Amino acid sequence: MEEDDWNDINRIVKELMNKFFSEFIKDFEEFLASIENGSGSERFFGLRIEVGPDGNPRIYRIGGEEFEKESPRVVVVDEGGESGKQLIDIYDDGSAIEVVAEVPVVSEKNVGVVALDDSHILIDVVDPGSGARYRREVELPAKIDPKTIKTLYRNGVLKVKAVKKSVVESGNVKE
To answer: Per-residue pLDDT tens for 1-29?
Structure first.
């Protein structure tokens, strides 16, 4: 190749990279602006892959409604109306317990949370379209006051927060 050919290739690659990064930065700034003004939604998507007892791979979708509109490149296994084992994280900030759970994407009115006692909650989600039901009992790392449970649900992510019983009893509840 001639030196002019290499210069042309170098110029083309630089132009493509500049275009890619300028589009990326523009999209990212729009995303950040939508979060700041409250019009954006939480976005979470992923896949969990495992090999079943029959030796066949199974791929489970994890994520929000906006991603389900696109056709996946893989076949997603759906067992009994729930996409595998949903993810659950539990946080203890000292005064409260917060549970963040990935649940099926349905209307907010079809999502319920009930305190079974002061150390267990039940997450209950019903998909009226398919009739599928997702129920999960969660053992909490500390006792809570069931009257303080607050929930937030958006795009298949459920957040449940409750004040610890010891904090309520001590009178140190912060609003």
So the answer is: 788 888 888 899 898 888 888 888 888 88
Within 8 A by CB and 6+ apart from 33, the residues are none
* DSSP β-ladder status, 120-126 and 150-154: unpaired
Tokens 């979708």, residue located: 61
| Structure confidence by residue, pLDDT tens digits, 109-140 | 999 999 988 888 988 888 888 777 888 888 89
The CATH number for 124's domain is 2.60.40.790
Q: CA 148: distance to chain centroid?
A: 23
Q: Please tell me the total count of domains within the chain.
A: 1
Whole-number Cα distances in Å, 134 to 41, 47, 82, 121, 123: 23, 19, 6, 14, 8
Strand order in the sheet with 96-102: 88-92, 96-102, 157-163, 150-154
pTM assigned to the model: 0.51
In a domain, 110, yes or no: yes
For residue 33, tell me if it sits in a domain. Answer: no
